[in-house]
Amino acid sequence: MIPAAFDYYRPDTIQDALALLQTHGDDARVMAGGHSLIPMMKLRMAEVPHLIDLQAIADLRGITVDGATVRIGAMVTQHDIIQSADLARAAPILREAALQIADPQVRYMGTLGGNVANGDPGNDMPGLMQCLGAEFILTGPDGTRTIAAREFFEAAYMTARAEDEILTAVTFAAMTGGYAYEKQKRKIGDYATAAAAVLLTKEGGRCATASIAMTNLSDVPVWSQAAAETLVGTDCNPDAIKAAMAAMDGDIDPGADNRGPVAFKRHAAGIVLSRAIARAWSRA
Amino acid sequence: MSKKMQITLTVNGEVQELLAEPRELLIHVLRERLNLTGAHIGCETSHCGACTVTMDGKSVKSCTVFAAQANGASITTIEGLSTPDNLHVLQNAFREHHGLQCGFCTPGMITRAAQLLADNPTPTEEEVRFGMAGNLCRCTGYQNIVTSVLAAATEMSAAREAAE
Ligand SMILES: Cc1cc2nc3c(=O)[nH]c(=O)nc-3n(C[C@H](O)[C@H](O)[C@H](O)COP(=O)(O)OP(=O)(O)OC[C@H]3O[C@@H](n4cnc5c(N)ncnc54)[C@H](O)[C@@H]3O)c2cc1C
Ligand code: FES
Ligand code: FES
């Protein structure tokens, strides 16, 4: 469990980190909390001759809620998210989800930026970011660009981020209405067998808007517009929830693995979604 | 092999300077270079928490932190919590309440519990269970560990009140 040797860098600024990425090209990688990357390096599934630790870059930290816009620096940890009173007000679903990630030790180290940049279908934040309609801010040698979370994930471990870009922050509109993050896992600290993020708003006893995203049920997170559309206009009664489950089932594409066969994954996906809708509705 | 780098750690209050390869894991530095063998290696895959130490006020699994990453940090291990003649409240509570059997998980349990009580001095039973979820024990069934942590919390609160 000893990784291959590497040179270590701890730049203080985004510019210095970008310059290191330029100099070392494919041989370089940035590290945030290291809680996905270090296990991969220990297993020698990742070899990183030049490791660029982002921990000293102050510009990558901080949570700001400015009116209705939330901005979270890439190096904000899951622990920071749980502690943030501002986020608890502006986007309580984030806290609810972060509390279901891993365990306390991992949450002290694991960052929001690393969780989404990783591109692991098992990570919880990518689906949640799609549910929130978040945007990712990327900075590279040619400047800064913004890309929607719903367009970021291309395949397992493949994202729209170019190798010489750094994810600097995530932004989204403060949420309104009801919310729930529901996750089925085999044991504490495990990745999801299936998870559902649900946001919805209510007007006159009917669902006015809905957003639904599913985790670890395909090689990318699944933002299911079809499932959300079936809910709009209903009062989220059991039949409406069943219809949303069926629509969602058409959008996911789980594979069999040690968390279970495909039929079980589909079953678990339906259950977490129905629970999440019911809870979100009760809070709307 | 990559170049060794100069690493400075404050471990249990003492400044330690050493040369290490960046890829060395913090647990190996603690155990093999500094002879602090309290933190254990249970799984080496970030799951069991036996290697838990406190780094700058955070409980971390030291098998999942590079020596280079820890450079400049302040680390507390189980050895830093007490002396053999003067056990920490948590250590006494684990002894009193049978919070250990084989003892392999105990340094990680107690180090984590110390940080948990620093963050939340009066936890509920549920908060203790949730806050200790990163530490596995193969012997006790956890009940006595939870009892021990709660007992220590009560005792530490009483001591704080008495001091005020
Ligand atoms: C025991 C255990 C259980 C876990 N359980 C869960 C779980 O249930 N749910 C879950 O979501 N996660 C889980 N994780 C993963 C954990 O949340 C990780 O910390 C997280 O996925 C990655 O964040 P990090 O900051 O550690 O990133 P790192 O490991 O440092 O980086 C991950 C990847 O992202 C890249 N990267 C990181 N930051 C940036 C950036 N700013 N710009 C560009 N690229 C970047 C890195 O180059 C690397 O390829 C678990 C981890 C462990 C060890
Ligand atoms: S040895 Fe580090 S978590 Fe098990
Ligand atoms: S006392 Fe034996 S592993 Fe916990």
Structural account:
The complex is a heterodimer of chains A (284) and B (164). Chain A has 284 residues and is of the alpha+beta class. Chain A is built from 12 helices and 14 strands. In chain A, a hairpin with a 2-residue loop joins strand 6 (135-140) and strand 7. The longest helix of chain A is centred in the last third of the chain and has 22 residues, at 262-283. Chain A is globular, with a radius of gyration of 19 Å. The termini of chain A are far apart. Chain B has 164 residues and is an alpha+beta fold. Chain B has 2 domains: 5-80, Beta-grasp domain (Ubiquitin-like (UB roll)), CATH 3.10.20; 89-163, DNA polymerase, domain 1, CATH 1.10.150.120. In chain B, a hairpin with a 2-residue loop joins strand 3 and strand 4 (58-61). In chain B, helix 3 packs across helix 6. Chain B starts with a strand and ends with a helix. Chains A and B meet through helix 2 and helix 6 of A and strand 4 of B. Bound molecules: flavin-adenine dinucleotide (FAD) and FE2/S2 (inorganic) cluster (2 copies).
Please name the defining characteristics of this protein:
A: 284 residues, alpha+beta, Uridine Diphospho-n-acetylenolpyruvylglucosamine Reductase, domain 2, Enolase-like, domain 1, five-stranded antiparallel sheet, four-stranded antiparallel sheet, 12 helices, globular, B: 164 residues, 2 domains, five-stranded mixed sheet, binds flavin-adenine dinucleotide
Outline the secondary-structure elements.
The complex is a heterodimer of chains A (284) and B (164).
Chain A (H helix, E strand, L loop, with lengths): L6 E3 L4 H11 L3 E4 L5 H6 L7 E4 L9 E4 L2 E5 L4 H6 L1 H6 L1 H7 L5 H6 L2 H6 L7 H8 L2 E6 L2 E6 H4 E3 L2 E2 L6 E8 L4 E7 L9 E10 L2 E10 L6 E2 L1 H7 L6 H14 L10 H22 L1
Helix pairs in contact in A: 10-11, 11-12
Chain B lengths: L4 E7 L2 E7 L5 H8 L18 E4 L2 E4 L5 H4 L3 E3 L12 H8 L9 H14 L5 H7 L11 H21 L1
Parallel strand pairs in B: 1-5
Antiparallel strand pairs in B: 1-2, 3-4, 3-5
Helix pairs in contact in B: 3-6
Bound molecules: flavin-adenine dinucleotide (FAD) and FE2/S2 (inorganic) cluster (2 copies).
